[in-house]
Amino acid sequence: MTHEFSYHAPGSIAEALALLAEHGDEAAVLSGGTDLLVNIRSGLSRPRHVVDIKRIPELKTLSYDRQSGLRIGACVTMNELLSYAPVTEWFAVLQAAGVELATYQLRNRATPVGNIVTASPCGDMSSPLLCLDAEVLVVSQNGSRQVPVREFITGVQTTALAPDELVQELIVPRTYAGAKAGYKKLKRIKGHDLGVVSVALITSNGTVRVGIGSAAPTPLLLPDFACGTPAEEIQAAAANAISPIDDVRCTKEYRAFMVGVFIGRLVEEVGA
Amino acid sequence: MKRIRLTINDQLYERDVNEHRTLLHVLREEIGLTGTKEGCGAGECGACTIIVDGLPLNSCLVLAVEADGTTIETVEGEARSGKLSPVQEAFDKHHAVQCGFCTPGMLMTIKDLLRRHPHPTREQIIEGIEGNFCRCTGYEQIIEAVLDATGQLEQKGAITHA
Known about the structure:
Structural class of chain A: alpha+beta
CATH architecture of the largest domain in chain A: 2-Layer Sandwich
Structural class of chain B: alpha+beta
Oligomer: heterodimer
Strand content of chain B: 15-25%
CATH topology of the largest domain in chain B: Ubiquitin-like (UB roll)
CATH architecture of the largest domain in chain B: Roll
Order of helices and strands of chain B: EEHEEEHHHH
Radius of gyration of chain A: 18 Å
């Protein structure tokens, strides 16, 4: 890495927030680094201060209970999430999408919170978390606020997070715990790759929910459907909602086509 | 500069490192352990895979300062007293090394895979090395080597390349 910066490893949230308040735009938060360090290396990101939050015990929270649902701290890695029993038992969509996120080595560093904060249209955790009505707990020196993921991601790699704010955790309510689910991701190769387009589908208590990635500036959540809705109706709603683009990975026509194909397959496999 | 302490292959190293240096660069250029390779430098190819506190990681995407206090395993720790590890021996036997650039990362990924799955199926091996590219495309030989090292290679009809 040629770009130089100062490294800070605060031991508490208060200390981290003080650093962010002091350095604002010139600070970058580091947890897994699978996006940040790549961006620093390529020159896309040039922070003067890197704030490593992994020594903050509260950010390693990973819990599940009746009242608050699933809580995923900012430093919980993808592999920790995927091996957490309540996730395998109750949140099939996180499991299905999580194993598609990068490689085993990267999942030992990459975090679900980081995936949301990066806010890439192809982030594998975005559409599943939209389906689950997940919220982001944001803290700063001025207090805390809870923002739904659908409002948190505001555009291509932009979020509602202010420079002095830190994401403490993701909160996944129990509303859709136990939902049957599937996740389909189109890739250029059989191994790990960024998604060309992806669809998450969950079904629970008579409702079908569909999330779509890489087919619009932000990940999308379609309006709810009743169980038994024909696939054609969901496909038509998706075709209206998406606004895919041509890029190095795919044409917009193929993206739109595959969204329809994946919805058809998921309706058949998950049983909407 | 920050002082860090790393235990690498059972040996303690203390170094003053620049805060922006990756663990990979410190291993190679400041500690002199050049077995670990830099391929893409962006977490795609797995050539830089090492094991940190029991977890395989891409060392190109870890800052050296982040690793302060950790215990690290690299390819240099595999052969002991001049004797190759069983997986290294199987790599040799099955010609699982062509240019050799991916080999150190492959070996560390496989070391971790065998800790989690001592007798991996062919599918588990394929999935297990998903994060390690072999641009000579010698995957079949690598898979055979792992099957052989774990006593699972069917002798009948097997290609040993020996």
